[in-house]
């Protein structure tokens, strides 16, 4: 077993490295390879749809349309008619105006730290100081992959989120896991 106090260097270095690589993937790579630029499509007649929704002043939050009021309502003819007529939507309404990237990037970095803390915890509980590089790589990399990728599949399974988007984000998770596994293995206490 390896104490968490001995793992702060791989935790922080992994978070920084993944932060940089994810920035490259999302900002630079999309200019060369259309990787994430098709994750969200344009709504047909975008201006007309926005103008139609604006009077409802929908507050920020997550919405399902149509949404039944109860299990019994799900079986009602009225609700089934709504389902058949469509559209069926799962949507997130965000606050109006420009959203500063600084806040989102800050939360992203905190998230990366948290995932890497869990990777350090799992790996540290499983392996002693001086453990073999590949053993450290396997435990840390697997834990980072779990924290970065597996929960993404729920949205594709339950809410029909694009399978392509989920697969691309899962591949990103594999890349992040390889980076973290390598960094944990390199900086593992001897």
Question: Would you mind describing this structure in some detail?
Answer:
This protein is mainly α. The chain folds into 2 domains: 126 residues, no CATH class; 48 residues, no CATH class. It has 8 helices and 2 strands, in the order H-H-E-H-H-E-H-H-H-H. Strands 1-2 form a two-stranded antiparallel sheet. The two termini are 12 Å apart. The model has no long low-confidence stretch (mean pLDDT 94).
Radius of gyration: 21 Å
End-to-end CA span: 12 Å
| Helix run count | 8
- Main sheet: strand order: 1-2
Reading the helices and strands in chain order gives HHEHHEHHHH
Overall 3D form: elongated
The total number of structural domains is 2
Query: Class by helix and strand content?
Result: mainly alpha
Portion of residues in helices?
Answer: 55-70%
Spans with pLDDT under 50 lasting ≥5 residues?
A: none
Report the major sheet.
2 strands, antiparallel
Tell me how many strands there are. 2
Mean pLDDT: 94
**Percent in strands:** 5-15%
Please tag this protein with its features.
mainly alpha; 2 domains; two-stranded antiparallel sheet; 8 helices; 190 residues
């Amino acid at each position: 077993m390896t104490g968490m106090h001995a793992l702060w260097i791989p935790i922080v270095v992994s978070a920084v490295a993944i932060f940089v690589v994810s920035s490259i993937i999302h900002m630079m790579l999309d200019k060369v390879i259309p990787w994430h630029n098709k994750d969200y499509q344009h709504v047909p007649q975008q201006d007309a749809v926005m103008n139609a929704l604006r009077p409802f002043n929908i507050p920020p939050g997550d919405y399902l349309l149509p949404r039944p009021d109860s299990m019994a309502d799900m079986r009602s003819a009225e609700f089934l008619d709504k389902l058949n007529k469509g559209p069926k939507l799962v949507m997130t309404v965000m606050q109006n105006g420009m959203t500063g990237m600084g806040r989102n990037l800050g939360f992203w970095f905190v998230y990366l730290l948290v995932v890497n803390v869990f990777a350090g915890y799992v790996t540290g509980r499983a392996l002693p100081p001086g453990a073999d590089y590949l053993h450290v790589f396997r435990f840390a990399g697997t834990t980072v992959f779990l924290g970065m990728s597996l929960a993404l599949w729920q949205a594709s399974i339950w809410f029909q989120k694009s399978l392509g988007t989920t697969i691309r984000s899962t591949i990103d998770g594999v890349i992040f896991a390889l980076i973290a596994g390598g960094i944990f293995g390199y900086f593992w206490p001897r």
